[in-house]
Amino acid sequence: MRQTKYFLKTSKTVSEDEPTVNGRLLEQAGFVSKLMAGVYTYLPLGLRVLNNISKIVREEMNAVGASELLMPMLHPKEIWQTTGGWDNIDVLFKINSRTEKEYALGQSEEEVVTPLVLSRVQSYKDLPLAVYQIGWKFRDELRAKSGLLRGREFLMKDMYSFHVSQEDFDRFYAEAKQAYFKIFTRLGLTAKATEASGGSFSQKISYEFMVLTDAGEDDILYCETCDYCVNVEITELKSGASCPKSCGGLLTQGRASEVGNVFDLGQKYGKDFGLGFTDVGGNKQYPVMGCYGIGISRLMGVIAETMNDPKGILWPENVAPFKVHLIALPGKDAENVFSASDKLYAELIESGVEVLYDDRADTSAGEKFADSDLIGIPHRVIISQKTLADASVEHKKRNEDKSSLVSLDQVRQIL
Amino acid sequence: MRQTKYFLKTSKTVSEDEPTVNGRLLEQAGFVSKLMAGVYTYLPLGLRVLNNISKIVREEMNAVGASELLMPMLHPKEIWQTTGGWDNIDVLFKINSRTEKEYALGQSEEEVVTPLVLSRVQSYKDLPLAVYQIGWKFRDELRAKSGLLRGREFLMKDMYSFHVSQEDFDRFYAEAKQAYFKIFTRLGLTAKATEASGGSFSQKISYEFMVLTDAGEDDILYCETCDYCVNVEITELKSGASCPKSCGGLLTQGRASEVGNVFDLGQKYGKDFGLGFTDVGGNKQYPVMGCYGIGISRLMGVIAETMNDPKGILWPENVAPFKVHLIALPGKDAENVFSASDKLYAELIESGVEVLYDDRADTSAGEKFADSDLIGIPHRVIISQKTLADASVEHKKRNEDKSSLVSLDQVRQIL
Q1: Are the C-beta atoms of B151 and B40 separated by less than 8 Å?
Q2: A333 shares a domain with A303
């Protein structure tokens, strides 16, 4: 993508009412634009990041055998009354239409997915079954001051599974948990699975997947030795205590952001809607359901929040909006530099490499480098009069200090 | 995709309160599920169609040089007050949050895109500029009884362009119009461009792109000889009159659905927000803006509405959820039939062909054929004991009556 044709503008100034690193960096680098607290436009660079994260999540959800669909955001009041959510969930946005019909804006989709799936399930032979979507959710938050970490409008992957028994649920739940760890690893993140309370969804114990970051909104206690981890909300343990798993390690308290969760919903939703299946013995049963969330837009915030240096963001390659930032420094030899850069750009595109091409003619080298560091694309390739004298480009990784000259013939091999 | 692992269930019955063909067919064939009037879940098959349409639209919008971004759906009241829409647009959904802050749900995005873009534009050198999104919109419709043709929640592509002059706008407008015709052609549709009034957006003349269908909600007069076409709302011409372009043709009246539109917004939005650019002479100017919509979910409805036969849908290949429906008829030789089918399925997937594989063991041939016709995938490939006796498959196109035997070795060449 040529920068001169792209809707991309970085900013030197920082919004003063933006307390988090991710909110400031993502705005400054031209990934998002805040419409109001907790509600963002995803600019072209940001939309690419969101799509890259979604793609990884989608692949791993498909791998556990879930079918992707897309549920509505506008919900009739009645389904939320059926489950009690209309009166009990304080973050539920409510709409009174001009036809006097009341609606809710989806903040989760149990109310939609339960009748949708169970009306298509007759017998135990139709189970287990899992569906998921990557869709926008809304929450009437009192405060939303954490950049992309707490949205009033945010993108989530939510999966729902349906099982004939607790045992079968446990089996799938374990698979889903492994898929979650795979996702976070592919995103370059280390997530800890914590025990937590079930929140408004369920009173059963659930798991939260936490990434340590000071901008997070949860406090967790984690063992430095084993994988024990717990939300401080549900424990009386303190920082410095011995790990309850008797591994010999000590617990440390840290601030973290919840990037995913899994809930054992039990039979609540099937019972609420009076929808079940016929079991092997011919009796009506309610399925055991699970709900599995991943905050896609929040993950974008967590990555920006945790992977940066004083100059800007350091996107992991799987997530970066482009793989390569090609920078032409025209100097006094604009014709040759642009001609060589245009050629390399075309070749890289041809080979399927995703390239952002800084083809601006009147911008200084210093400004181009500053923008490039801020944006944080993993590979930087510079073409200038100087590099062309050696029939080369200068190559530098965003997360390394040293650069190297690479001959024009060999650039494609290293990218 | 193996049907036994896929969330797909067709239905023999038709919802009685669904008056349109597209609503009935898409529900029956398992593409969508109605949550309430005008609000649908896109089931796995339907989501694939929506994505295929989006992909074509995206490619053509990128080709005219527009940058894709994604704007929020939840809007602060203030931006709608600035343009007068808060009080004047009757289909605007309004939300009163628990913090007493009022929001609107986006039904179009001029109020978001104008400040977003113009705050990043300083001079005439930054223009022209076009951005677009493929995003969900909401309208508080009094009636929504046309299946996917009129949604309370619907997917739209909306592009916005910004120009230094009317002349430059006209140039881009002509390009966008050509891109639109290209899109409809790729979707297998014949669209007519009609003159219409500007609606709530603008008082200038706009263009609507219409596809003839009885389920549509507009009446148009079109010339059978030339490309003249007009919405009856803004003309005094009648059916049977001579074409005003003096081509010698006569006008015919028909029912149509509006699948796209382009509006000349003039300088209204720049003025409303007090945001402009510095022109060549150093003076502040307001840009001329254009708005270009395409109804993505409506297009899905229009295609189903216009391309069907008594047995089901006939998807054009560019839009179909899968290219091939592979059907195994196990009969009395289940082991061999499934073994050959599994092998062909794997080979097709390997070659990048998108295949839905009816691998159900206990379903009759008749039921499989009925489902396949209903779903409407362009190519059907049948493997049975009979075809295997000839080391062949039976191949039939959905839109043709005759089938032919093709040797197993050659199947991949014809798909």
Answers
A1: yes
A2: no
Do A336 and A304 belong to one domain?
no
- Nearest-angstrom CA–CA distance, B260 and B159: 11
A198/A299 same-domain check: yes
Q: Return the closest-CA partner of residue B132 out of B71, B179, B68.
A: B68
Tokens of B291: 């708005």
Q: Say whether B40 sits in a helix, a strand or coil.
A: strand
Q: Which residue of B has its CA nearest to A90?
A: B98
Q: Do B97 and A72 touch (CB under 8 A)?
A: no
Residues B143, B81 share a domain? yes
pLDDT digits (tens, 9 = 90+) for B178-204: 999 999 999 999 999 987 665 544 456
Scanning every residue of chain B, which has its alpha carbon at the shortest distance from the alpha carbon of A47? Answer: B69
Distance in Å, alpha carbon of B163 to nearest chain A alpha carbon:
14
The ipTM of this complex is 0.95
- Could you tell me if B266 and B335 lie in one domain? no
Bridge-based pairing state of the strands A277-278 and A392-397: unpaired
Q: What is the 3-state secondary structure (H, E, C) of A156-213?
A: EEEEEEEECCHHHHHHHHHHHHHHHHHHHHHCCCCCEEEEECCCCCCCCCEEEEEEEC
State the DSSP H helix or E strand holding residue B170, giving kind and residue range, or none if neither. helix B166-186
Domain enclosing residue B360, as ranges: 324-414
User: What is the tens place of the pLDDT at every residue in A368-393?
Assistant: 999 999 999 999 999 999 999 999 99
Chain B residue numbers with beta carbons less than 8 Å from the beta carbon of A41 are 69-72, 112, 116
Contact residues for B339 (Cβ-Cβ < 8 A; gap 6+): none
Q: Which residue has the tokens 């046309």?
A: B146
Predicted TM-score (pTM) of the model is 0.96
d(CA A326, CA A341): 8
CA distance B228 to B222: 6
Task: Determine the average pLDDT of the residues in B18-47.
Answer: 96
CB-neighbour burial class of residue A355 (10 A; exposed 0-12, middle 13-18, buried 19+): buried
Which tokens is A332 given?
């006094």
Number of H helices, E strands in chain B: 12, 23
| Distance, CA of A41 to chain centre | 15
Note whether B65 and B116 are same-domain residues: yes
* pLDDT confidence of residue A197: 63
Chain B residues whose CB is inside 8 A of the A95 CB are 93-95, 105
Give the gap in angstroms from C-alpha A278 to the nearest C-alpha of chain B: 17
Contact B65 A39 (CB under 8 A): no
DSSP state of A384: E
- Count CB atoms within 10 A of the CB of residue A13: 8
Smallest CA–CA distance, residue A326 to chain B, in Å, is 19
Using an 8 Å Cβ cutoff, are B73 and B133 in contact? Answer: no
Contact check, Cβ <8 Å, B140/A98: yes
C-alpha–C-alpha distance, residues A151 and B411, integer Å: 50
* H helix or E strand, kind and range, residue A51: helix A44-63
Token couple for B151: 């949604």
Average pLDDT of span A60-66: 97
pLDDT tens readout for residues A133-189: 999 999 999 998 899 999 999 999 999 999 999 999 999 999 999 999 999 999 999
Co-location of B350 and B276 in the same domain: no
What's the rounded Cα separation, in Å, for the pair A212 and A205? 21
Give dist(CA B327, CA B358) in Å, integer.
5
- In contact, A338 and A384? CB cutoff 8 Å: no
Strand partners, B153: B138
Q: 3-class DSSP state for residue B365?
A: helix
DSSP for B42-82, written as a single string: E-HHHHHHHHHHHHHHHHHHHHTTPEE-B--SEEEHHHHHH
